[in-house]
Every structure is written in structure tokens, then in C-alpha cells.
Design brief:
The chain is an alpha+beta fold and about 290 residues long. It contains ten helices and four strands; from the N terminus they run ααααααααβαββαβ.
Length: about 290
């Protein structure tokens, strides 16, 4: 039986607490009272709250997600399901809490009100802040409820399933419902789309991490001099491999090096000195090891 790492477990739940508060604040302050919604199950909960009371959105998010947490605990991993239940509890309860507390602290401006029906800034705020919360939870614990939890379950039962289409269809269904239930409001529909786009954009950047680099793969006949100049000038390590060109069947060397964005131009200048060198580079996310951003 695997021994529990209480320090790691504590960090997991701390990050879930921060993520839940951030996503809850973004949804409450910018989205809940301006008539547009997030994606997935949270969006469906917000739509349902239109027919009851805005403060019920947190309750609906909790009720919709708890069955998914139970299924994750049973079929995927108990630790994962419990952590997700904690995150959902924080997110949903923060919506209820903010609804009660913010009017007492800020009676004049308890939440953002879009001026003259202009929802652009509200949708940007909701997408960025709630997206940051989703990203923190996904990066640390792998799921932030809703569609992500459903995706984990589908992957468990059908590993070959294309879960990207599921997320896309759920988001499209939310946009479709907003358009018709908001009486064909283009403003609310566009605000929902912008919110979804920005939230996913922020999530992607959170998952990429802060140590983003650029990997150069260089085919050369002069690996020693080239590697020495790269290590001396750019202060980055290199890896050398023996390769063979399939066209000429000549033995060559490939140097692999990961550099920072600001070092790309310097690398280009170095490569131009070595005639007969062939190279390409691509972006890599979250470089692990001795690599300064």
C-alpha cells in the first residue's frame, strides 16, 4: 500500500482552495449578474439560476458536480475524486459566500456592472480570473470538475475516445442555450464566447508552465566547435547524437539544445557561421531541470 505524503497532499488541497476561490470570484464578480455564462456544466448551472435566483448558481454547480466526483472516486482514483470534491465545494460555496458578503463590504459596488450593456470588459475579467483558477486546479490536480471530470471518466472506460469533441459540444450547447434563452441576445452570446475563449487560453498557458523554451535540432559535420560556441556564448548545455542521412547514407552528428526566447537571434547568428549546417527549432513547454527562464 502506497504511503501517504501529507506534505504533497497538503499542497494539493491548498492549490485547490486557491483555485476554487479564484474561479468562484471571477464567476461571481463578472459573470453572474451580467447575463452570460461559463462553459460546460458550470454554464448549465448558471443558466438554471436565471430561472430561480443568481445566488443559486453555486448550489447548482455543487449538485451537478458531486455525482461526477463520486464516480471518479469509484472508477478512476479516490484521491482524485476527493480532491475534486473539495475544489467544487470551495468554488460553489465561494459563489454563495460572495453573494452574501460582498454587498456588506462594498455596498455600492458588490459586483461589476457592465455599463450601457457593454459586456466586453466583464467577459474579459471572467475569462481571465476564472480561467486562472481552472488552470491552477488542472495543473496541480488534473481536473476542475464539469467537462474535465466527464473526460476523465470517458478516458477510463474508452481510452481511444476523442474527449476534445465532448468539451467542444458541451461549450457549443451552452452558447446555443444562451442565445435562445436570452431572447436572441447577440451581446450575451458574444460575451459567453469571449469568456470561453479567454478561459481556455489562460488554462493552456497555465498548463504550459513558466519555463518555456525553444528546442534546436542541428545536423552538422562540425559538432565540437559548434557545441563549444553554443555553450560559451549562450551558457546552455547541448546533447550530441550520431545520425545518418537517409538520402546520402553519410554519418553526421545532431546537436540538441534548448534555449530561451531571447537567445533565438544569438543562436541564428552562430548557426550562420557554419556552412552545411541544417537546423530547425520548435517551442517546448515546461522545461524541467537546470533551465533559467
Amino acid at each position: 500500500m502506497k504511503k501517504l505524503n501529507f506534505k504533497e497532499l497538503g499542497v494539493d488541497y491548498l492549490m485547490s482552495l486557491i483555485a476554487g476561490l479564484l474561479s468562484g470570484f471571477g464567476l461571481y464578480y463578472f459573470s453572474q449578474h451580467n447575463g452570460f455564462v461559463p462553459g460546460g456544466i458550470s454554464g448549465l448551472a448558471f443558466i438554471l439560476s436565471w430561472f430561480t435566483k443568481p445566488e443559486y448558481s453555486g448550489i447548482f454547480i455543487f449538485l451537478f458536480n458531486i455525482p461526477l466526483c463520486i464516480l471518479l472516486s469509484i472508477f478512476v482514483e479516490r484521491k482524485h475524486g476527493l480532491n475534486l470534491a473539495f475544489y467544487v465545494m470551495i468554488q460553489s460555496s465561494s459563489l454563495v459566500l460572495f453573494e452574501k458578503v460582498m454587498p456588506l463590504i462594498f455596498p455600492e459596488n458588490p459586483y461589476y456592472v457592465a455599463e450601457a450593456g457593454n459586456l466586453i470588459f466583464a467577459s474579459i475579467g471572467a475569462g481571465c480570473i476564472s480561467g486562472l483558477g481552472y488552470g491552477i486546479q488542472l495543473r496541480r490536480n488534473g481536473s476542475s470538475g464539469g467537462t474535465y471530470a466527464i473526460s476523465a471518466l470517458i478516458k477510463h472506460w474508452n481510452p481511444a475516445a476523442n474527449i476534445a469533441w465532448l468539451s467542444f459540444m458541451m461549450d457549443c450547447s451552452v452558447i446555443f442555450l444562451v442565445f435562445f434563452l436570452a431572447e436572441f441576445s447577440i451581446d450575451r452570446t458574444l460575451a459567453t464566447i469571449i469568456n470561453l475563449f479567454l478561459a481556455n487560453f489562460v488554462v493552456d498557458h497555465c498548463l504550459q508552465g513558466s519555463k518555456v523554451g525553444y528546442k534546436f535540432e542541428i545536423i552538422t559535420d562540425n559538432p565540437e566547435d559548434l557545441a563549444t560556441e553554443i555553450m560559451t556564448t549562450l551558457k546552455h548545455g547541448v546533447t550530441e547524437m550520431n545520425v545518418q542521412g537517409m538520402y546520402t547514407h553519410h554519418n553526421k552528428y545532431m546537436i540538441v539544445c534548448i534555449v530561451r526566447k531571447r537567445d533565438i537571434s544569438k543562436m541564428m547568428k552562430i548557426l550562420k557561421k557554419y556552412t552545411g549546417t541544417f537546423s530547425s527549432f520548435s517551442k517546448v513547454n515546461e522545461v524541467i531541470g537546470n533551465f533559467k527562464k
